[in-house]
Write a structure and sequence with these properties.
The protein is an all-alpha fold. Helices cover 73% and strands 2% of the residues. The protein has one domain. The chain is built from 9 helices and 2 strands, in the order H-H-H-H-H-E-E-H-H-H-H. Strand 1 and strand 2 form a beta hairpin. Helix 1 packs across helix 2. The protein starts with a helix and ends with a helix.
């Protein structure tokens, strides 16, 4: 299993980093990491796009989900059936937002190993023959930043980027309030805690990782936030157009027109 992981994930990412390192100005490892992050993000774009779209769809459906939970709180079997009917009606798979993230985990682990080994005098024996192999990867970026060692500034920046991304998600969340319901308030409180918990956790983890990996984390989070904003705007525009079309169809419907005349 280890050799399969090395061949499929670790070795290609290591070679991508070395290749970019060889061609960027001054062989700057920081610039190489930024370029490599953009390339990996582009490769995983279909997966991350699917995940963000699924999160958005689930988020918009949440008020109806909460209504079902409240209505059938005393009948778990009926609740489960109604939930499945609701998801089927809106053509949403509740697991579709998680699966793309799970598929990306091997890539993230491979990146972690590359930065852990490659930036600390690790072996470059796995570099492909057709790629020029340097004696070692110089971990100093921009002339002063050692990316082989933990960096608290990068960790804090990664945490702020995580907060920005999470804030964008909660900002888009529709308000839910059903009469007499208290679970919505509890869910809102949990979401608010997660909004701050994840960035803090990112900083705590980031200060223990090589600076190169934290830089990768930072750039990935920023790119995801930009992608998230773009997809949300596109989906909102599509929803607005669909609503306009529905209203137009209703106005053009002879039955609706006849009813208006009779009234």
């Amino acid at each position: 299993m280890g050799s399969i992981f090395t061949t499929i994930f670790y070795q290609p990412i290591l070679n991508l980093l070395v290749f970019v390192y060889n061609i960027v100005p001054g062989n700057d490892i920081g610039i190489a990491i930024v370029v490599m992050t953009i390339v990996i993000k582009a490769i995983l774009l279909p997966l991350s796009k699917k995940s963000i779209e699924s999160q958005k769809s689930l988020q918009e459906l949440q008020p109806k989900v909460d209504e079902v939970k409240k209505k059938y709180a005393d009948n778990k079997e009926e609740m489960g059936r109604k939930m499945m009917e609701l998801y089927a009606k809106h053509k949403i798979n509740p697991l579709s937002s998680c699966l793309p993230l799970l598929i990306q985990l091997p890539f993230l682990w491979a990146v972690f190993r590359v930065f852990r080994n490659g930036l600390t005098n690790g072996s470059l024996d796995l570099v492909y023959p057709f790629i020029s192999k340097p004696e070692a990867l110089d971990p100093i970026s921009f002339g002063f930043l050692n990316l082989s060692e933990p960096n608290i500034v990068l960790a804090i920046l990664a945490g702020l980027a995580q907060f920005l991304q999470a804030r964008m998600m909660t900002r888009k969340k529709p308000a839910v309030k059903t009469p007499g319901a208290k679970d919505e308030d509890m869910a809102a409180a949990i979401n608010k805690q997660m909004l701050y918990f994840m960035p803090v956790l990112t900083v705590i983890i980031g200060i223990s990782l090589p600076g190169g990996l934290t830089l990768y984390w930072l750039i990935t989070t920023l790119l995801t936030a930009l992608q998230q904003e773009f997809i949300f705007k596109k989906m909102n525009k599509k929803n607005d157009n669909d609503h306009e079309d529905d209203n137009k169809d209703q106005k053009d419907d002879p039955k609706v027109i006849e009813g208006e005349v009779l009234n």
